[in-house]
Amino acid sequence: MNAPAVEVSGLVIDVARPDGTRKAIVEDVSFAIPKGEVLALIGESGSGKTTIALSMMGYSRFGARISAECIRVGDMRIDGMAESELPTIRGRRISYIAQSAAAAFNPSRPIMAQVIEPLLVHRLADRRTAEAKAVEIFRSLALPSPETIGQRYPHQVSGGQLQRLMAAMALITDPELVILDEPTTALDVTTQVEVLRTFKSAIAASGATAIYVSHDLAVVAQVADRIVVLKNGRTSEEGTAEQILEAPSSDYTKSLLAAAHPAVRPSADASEDNVLTVSAIRAGYGRIVDGQPAIPVLSNVGFTLKRGATIGVIGESGSGKSTLARVIAGLLPAAGGEVQLDGDVLPADMADRSREQLRRIQMVFQNADTALNPAHTVGEILSRPLAFYHGLKGSAAAARVAELLDIIQLPRGLETRRSTELSGGQKQRVNLARALAAEPDVLLCDEVTSALDTVVGAAILDLIDELRRKLGIATVFISHDISTVKAFCDKMLVLYSGTAVELSRQSEFAGAIRHPYTRLLVDSVPDMDRGWLTHRAAVERAAMPGASLRNAAGEALCRFLPRCPAAIAGTCDAVPAPLRESEGQAILCHHTLADLSSAGSAEI
Amino acid sequence: MSTKLTTFLRGLPVSGRIGLALVVFWLVVALVGPWLAPYSVGAFVDQDVFSGISSQFWLGSDYLGRDVLSRVLWGSRYTVFLALGAAMIAVCIGTSFALLAAIRGGWTDEVISRAMDTFISIPSKIFALVLVAAFGSSLSLLLVIAAATYVPGNFRIARALAMNLVALDFVQVARARGEGSVHIALREVLPNMIHPLLADTGLRFVFVVLLLSGLSFLGLGVQPPHADLGSLVRENISGITEGALAIIVPALAIATLTVGANLLIDALKPGGKA
Questions:
Q1: Which residues pair with residue A312 across a beta bridge?
Q2: What mean pLDDT comes out for the span B204-228?
Q3: DSSP label at residue A83
Q4: Distance between CA A29 and CA A228 in Å, rounded?
């Protein structure tokens, strides 16, 4: 047996504290990776996974100190290298793919110049050979028009393409070790699949050893040979991918696995009356001419919501999910259609809504970091809606704030802290409590768990679920994560490019009949199954159309047409799609519902 | 109250405490100085000019043989109250307009911003000259001129700060709650820009001191025999070659006052944590 390509033992990384002592953020981590294999570092934010990955290049963020018995990559002892030697190996023998390609590329230089930079900096090739090599890598990464894509600027390619271009930058020097730091986290599920696939084959083709940093076990299951589970800077469990995924031994790994498979919550016993009715909404940005905004986003979107029920709104980024929430809240006045609350039509613009109407619909913003005013304490944040909507002041308000803290399961005494002194999960709870303080009938949750770790996010979901059952609050739950929505919501609204392509009840959604786009979304979510990525057939992905497609008569065609694997030539590109309805389900498609069931999908 | 003060003091770094001491010292001097002054401000009491320290004239005499100590005690009153007052008025007005422009946006923003741009293009000295010619020099007019001169600059900075804050989610949350513009401006936006605004006030303060001495040099400022600290430096400029106390003392006074104010402001941490 050869010695492993990468070997780390007794790795300790510590940071200085203000009082001069040192605090270990990574303690006694050891692992070895055989040549050509992929090791995954998995854990929550703050578990030290990126810190460990960066130490492979001898790099630590400001103030941190790396010490180890051994960090070896190939024949290099990273731990014994002088600071001046390290730049000669970085980007050449060890390369790094960062989470956000958009932030890693310089927006003012063409892509090619940046991709070949590692070769030029290390004087490994002249410009001409470097460019030829880059084109070759672009081709192997399945990038469109590999000869010319290098001349574009970073903003001229899509997010998934940019991520692959960054991989090209990392692989161009034929490194021995590639570090991938959450490379697909910022991408849509459908894009993630394609990027994962190309990454996997590119790494295999280059023969490099890789370290894959992620918080998502299902993604890791597709690419990793070995997994190290980290918690608070310590190794919680280590083993082969099969072993960790199928027979985890530590409780922590088990809880991670459980959080990735949310338990299906049964539909609440919703009352009969619709609390929220949204019908035929048209909305967008820019000046409204003839009831049509300059940049239309939503067209003809509607749904009804019963008291205590939850509707999940899903779709890729840019599909109009957040716009829908803003229209319901009145932040963005709709150009057409109406929103009814308990049968009363609400004014489109929130400026025309009464304070009582505003109180009854509350929005929880996606990013608790920016949604909480850093100048205010938790107590001030929570008591403002109490004073504003309910006129509560003084000790009555203080009592209610304490009650709210109990509801969101935060300790009393937290009300004197500012939001900057809270953890991510605590901030999101405060964010939620502020909406609850108004005692709303409808809660609009915009991607409230997206920025949180799996386990923390699951706890927030449990809380929202409990609240709607106890307090009878109807919830509009916006998410790009289909498995959460599937488990959590009574109804599902699938948006594609601003149109509702499917509206189903939970029972129907779990069934077999699906819109081709919904099927694509569902199938794009990785399973824990290790063979999932290999089994899944590649789907050619086109860009989402900006303007609606129209036929010769000027009627709007199905927007999913350019990407649809089941499009019927002569029908889908000529006639607008009809709405197929049955009990509890409505699908916008030319195929009949019977055709759309998974049994029928074989011939599609 | 006293416990609040001690925790505030304890939270201040050393530089902040020095700044606070200097500022308090000059405020006290400005308040009670004229009663402590041994001589009348305009009296020619010394036979000699630019004389050094003596038991009769603690800080010597100036280019006309007047007592420097008395003149500095009086001068600090003008400088502290005029400059501090003008800087604070400028920042209050500039920031109010900035908040209005940032929160209302659209046409309101456009009109206010262009009006400020127009204002910025008028040279401050000419502006002062016209006003003094029209109304005659008075302290309140000087206050208005100094304040008006620095409103547009503060407006620019405050508007940029407020624009960034208005785009943040917590302002959206307040809007979605139905809050009025006044609440959003004063409770949501302003607390997050207080620190840079204080720093800006410190800067404006120094500028006003310079502007006032410039105006005095043109005969538009504080009218003789009275003089603010800036004009004390100006009128004794001929003594600089012999290192006369008459020029060193007011210069030192300006330096300690401005440095003190800036040290104090920098020590006030953002977020109100003192």
A1: A477, A492
A2: 80
A3: T
A4: 9
What is d(CA A321, CA A476) in angstroms, rounded to the nearest whole number?
10
Tell me the three state secondary structure of residue A75.
coil
CA A536/CA A508 separation, integer angstroms: 24
- CA atoms of A437 and B216, how far apart (whole Å): 59
List the 159-188 stretch of B: residues with Cβ below 8 A of A. 168-170, 172-173, 175-179, 187-188
Q: How far apart are CA A328 and CA A275, in angstroms?
A: 13
Cα dist. A331→A113, A283, B174, B229 in Å? 43, 11, 11, 54
Give the separation between CA B235 and CA B248, rounded to whole angstroms: 12
Instruction: Please give the model's pTM, rounded to 2 decimal places.
Output: 0.77
pLDDT digits (tens, 9 = 90+) for B91-135: 999 999 999 999 988 899 999 999 999 988 888 888 888 888 888
**Cβ-defined contact of A373 to B177 (cutoff 8 Å):** no
Query: Which spans in A75-215 are helix H?
Result: 86-89, 101-104, 111-115, 117-121, 127-140, 159-171, 189-206
Q: Under an 8 A CB cutoff, do A331 and B177 touch?
A: no
What is A185-242 written as a DSSP string?
TTS-HHHHHHHHHHHHHHHHHHT-EEEEEES-HHHHHHH-SEEEEEETTEEEEEEEHH
Distance from CA of B164 to the nearest CA of A (A): 12
| Stretch A1-12: mean pLDDT | 82
Long-range contacts of A538-542 (CB under 8 A, 24+ apart): A538/A194, A538/A197, A539/A190, A539/A193, A539/A194, A539/A565, A541/A160, A541/A190, A541/A191, A541/A194
Distance from the A101 Cα atom to the nearest Cα atom in chain B, whole angstroms: 24
CB contact B274 to A (< 8 Å): no
State the DSSP code for A573.
T
Both structure tokens of A182: 């959450």
Q: What count of other Cβ atoms lies within 10 Å of the Cβ of residue B112?
A: 18
d(CA A227, CA B74): 77
Q: How far apart are the first and last CA of chain B?
A: 15
Contacts of A287 (CB under 8 A, 6+ apart): A293, A294
Q: State the Cα–Cα distance between residues A150 and A135, nearest whole angstrom.
A: 8
Size of interface A-B (CB pairs under 8 A): 51
Q: Is the pLDDT of residue A283 over 80?
A: yes
Cα angle B64, B65, B71 (rounded to 5 degrees) comes to 90
Three-state DSSP class for B13? Answer: coil
Report the DSSP beta bridge partners of residue A340. Answer: A277, A345
Token couple for A592? 């009949």
Cis peptide before B225 (omega within 30 of 0): yes
CA distance B238 to chain A (A): 52
Cα-Cα-Cα-Cα dihedral of A542, A547, A553, A558, to 10°? Answer: 50
- Helix H or strand E segment including A585: strand A585-588
Q: Which amino acid, one-letter code, is at A330?
A: G
Q: How far B272 CA lies from chain A's nearest CA (Å)?
A: 8
For A278, the 3-state DSSP assignment is strand
Question: CA A79 from chain center: how many Å?
Answer: 35
Residue B59 vs residue A500, higher pLDDT: A500
C-alpha to C-alpha distance for A238 and A231, rounded to whole angstroms: 12
Tell me whether B11 touches chain A (CB under 8 Å): no
Among all chains, which residue has been given the structure tokens 């779709």? A315
Q: Using an 8 Å Cβ cutoff, are B261 and B20 in contact?
A: no
Contacts of residue A586, defined as CB under 8 A and 6 or more positions apart, other chains included, come to A502, A503, A504, A579, A580
Asked if residue A56 has pLDDT above 80, the reply is: yes
